[in-house]
Amino acid sequence: MKLSKRNSGVVATAIAAALLMTACGGDDGGDSGDAAAADGGSYSIYIGEPENPLVPGNTTETEGGQVVDALWTGLVEYDNETNEPVYTGVAESIESDDQQTWTVTLNDGWTFHDGTPVTAQSFVDAWNYTAYSPNAQGNSYFFSNIVGYGDLQAPETGGEPAAQEMSGLRVIDDQTFEVELAAPYAQWPATTGYTAFYPLPEAFYEDTEGFGEQPIGNGPFMADEALTPGQGITLTRFDEYGGEQPANAEQVEFRIYTELGTAYTDLQGGSVDIVDTLPPDAIASAEQEFGERFIETPQGDITSLGFPTYDERFADPNVRKAFSMAIDRQAISDAIFNGTRTPAQSYISPVVPGHREDACEACELNVDEANALLDEAGFDRTQPVDLWFNAGGGHEEWMQAIGNQIRQNLGVEYQLRGDLQFAEYLPLQDAQGMTGPFRSGWIMDYPVAENFLGPLYSTAALPPAGSNVTFYSNPEFDAALAEGNAAATEDESVAAYQAAEDILIEDLPAAPLFYRLNQGAHSENVRNVVIDAYGRIDTAAVEVVE
Amino acid sequence: MGRYVARRLLLTIPVLIGASFLIFAMVYALPGDPIRALAGDRPLSAAVQAQLRAEYNLDDPLWLQYIKYVGDLVQGDFGTDFSGRDVSETIFQRLPVTAKLALAAVIFEAVIGLVAGILAGIRRGSFFDNLVLISTTLIVSIPVFVLGFVAQFAFGLKLGLFPTSGIGDGWYSYVLPGLVLASLSLAYVARLTRTSLAENLRQDYVRTARAKGLKPSVVIGKHTLRNSMIPVVTFIGADIGALMGGAIVTESIFNIPGLGRAVYDAVLRQEGAVVVGIVTLFVFFYIFFNLLVDVLYALLDPRIRYD
């Protein structure tokens, strides 16, 4: 799960946007487009300050992730339209007979930016380094399903881990390695396109600190210079790129902004070319102002209202369904998000295979049914419910709207509990401290239906091991999930995941609320700007207009 | 004089130690777990969390953390932030930026503020005096972020006279943010100069000087102005100290990578080493510029002696 912190500074941004909107007309001429585009040129992209060094195993948020993504290509890549894994990356094939032991065969001809070849060892060493707990890498848990991961974790009492290498990773030769998982997982190849799985050159282990500022990857762009904190980094096209789609542009500059509003002003003035997220108050006017240069694509995420299943008031699934049915998702999307949220009626995001448009009946507004369920459950309506969310993320407005709908539709008063910053909010969630429904957000790690189910609702993901903060636990659900993981074909696994989702819908540990849309815009200087389901720009595909 | 300065400088040492401990204690007292916040919604294995806590001494009691910090500090090690970057590196990189912005602001503040104040003070009640009065009232009453956005929008985006953001154009990049940052102080300097000058012009010694037949320029420039400058110099001196402490709002609007924004981010992330290192530096600047002001007093007013 990547954490986007772009919502801070909302007040200043909102004021900026308000001031701007009064004065901006639409002066987008129809002259974009056919001026011969080409090979070369340079363009710039807005990012926020990366929070971690630019090392794939430690890059956990979207800002640094954007840069790392331009510098690296993984085993597989994802199709921008369907989000299915495609073998245009380093891997020629990833195959298995039993969905548990995978053989990865690499393509020839891939080199790092320093000229050294990308080999099986480059992957295995990088994964071991990331998983080894004394290295304190943020993406360590992506390898927890590989045999031997536990041996790389230092015991809680202190001391050294038992091993430095996972026994489940075996190098066969330069182009081949084997990965043994602790349990069958048919979708494993689809996960390997994620940042955590990128290879590392030998130069990394000699100077990990310097590497984090000026990384050496195998992607379409290379870093000629180090990142300047607060300012950004300029990458140059890598001419010996091993992939099928080398970069179109000669250079790309990632420019760091502290205020999204400032970046948007720069975009209007043409001094930055791509802004992949818009200030809340500019959304309404941006589509008109930028015309063809306005971008809107679905994001692989879900926002839901989690229920504390450990709290006796919310232990009854009927109560949880009643609350879910009391929420008019479309009205909130329109009134508060300018229509930039799609009401969710499924736990699985529409961007991944297995999504069903209206899987969840209890996710539709149905006031009569909600009240009937609440009466049946004997819910005490005289006691107000607490609504929890973290401070500083811009969540107050819509959580209040949800509270108002609960009050109006169910006759239950509410109290907002949104004073805690992440640093306090998350430990409280882990400690079963939520006294009422709470805001819960999830951005997918890889485009697989399982990623929306297992990490959030399985017994194995209960805190502190995972993110199952509703503390939902149902052996039937776990079994259905395991069946999907072990299935031999994609169809079978999708069917099993949907069966697992049906169990969730019956128990409703959380009420799905919205899927977000990526919204961005670009200047007349560039074209072919695509934002994928991760909210990342395909930097190689962007063309600079001469 | 030399001994006075030396004594004052020696006094800064206990002040710096006290200030840094207070700041350290305040960061320590912030609620919540910074390592957990670093992880966000995603799980971070217990072993990794323990490793990070050990790296940043977060399991130690306050006094031990502080002693470890100071121990590293006297060896020239400012510590690292959560992404492993040296705090000293952050300071070296951002200090020149903040200093340039502060310098630009002080120049505008002193030049425009003084000229406006002197002219208004000499011609009290004139059209110009009223103009200064009204325009400074206006500036003082507008919050700086509104001024910043309007200036950025009008002069940067619409007229294209200045870059809208960043520091890519050298000194020129600092003109607009410098003006915005100086605006409030500029208004105070103008008001202060005017009042102080007007008051001194009514003094007996001015009448005496005039009666001696001195030229008006000498009366004002040499006699009155020098006496009128004491409150103004005090104000500007204190203001430089404050400006060196970074300007979070202005830096954010114009996307200037200075120290103010670095501290703001560090407080949000509870990065103790960064906050303490930079804020202690701010305290030092403040003390230093105040000392400078005190020394300047002696030059302006011969009656003030420091021996």
What's the helix and strand layout?
The complex is a heterodimer of chains A (546) and B (307).
Chain A (H helix, E strand, L loop, with lengths): L9 H14 L13 E2 L3 E6 L14 H10 L5 E2 L6 E2 L4 E5 L5 E6 L13 H12 L37 E5 L2 E5 L7 H4 L11 H4 L1 H6 L7 E3 L8 E6 L13 E6 L3 H10 L4 E2 L7 H8 L3 E5 L2 E6 L10 H9 L3 H9 L3 E3 L23 H10 L8 E4 L7 H15 L3 E4 L4 H9 L7 E6 L10 H4 L17 H12 L3 H18 L2 E13 L3 E2 L15 E3 L1
Parallel strand pairs in A: 2-11, 16-17
Antiparallel strand pairs in A: 1-21, 3-4, 5-6, 6-8, 7-8, 9-10, 10-11, 12-19, 13-19, 14-18, 14-19, 15-19, 20-21
Helix pairs in contact in A: 1-7, 9-11, 15-16
Chain B lengths: L1 H28 L4 H6 L6 H10 L6 H13 L12 H36 L4 H15 L2 H15 L16 H27 L2 H8 L4 H29 L3 H6 L5 H11 L2 H29 L7
Can you describe this structure in just a few lines?
The complex is a heterodimer of chains A (546) and B (307). Chain A has 546 residues and is α+β, with helices and mostly antiparallel strands.
Number of helices of chain A: 16
Compute the average pLDDT of chain A: 88
What's the CATH topology label of the largest domain in chain B? MetI-like fold
- CATH fourth-tier homologous superfamily of the largest domain in chain B: MetI-like
What does the largest sheet of chain A look like? 6 strands, antiparallel
Broad shape of chain B: globular
| H/E series of chain B | HHHHHHHHHHHHH
The CATH superfamily of the domain at 301-517 in chain A turns out to be Dipeptide-binding Protein, Domain 3
Structural class of chain A: alpha+beta
Q: What is the strand tally of chain A?
A: 21
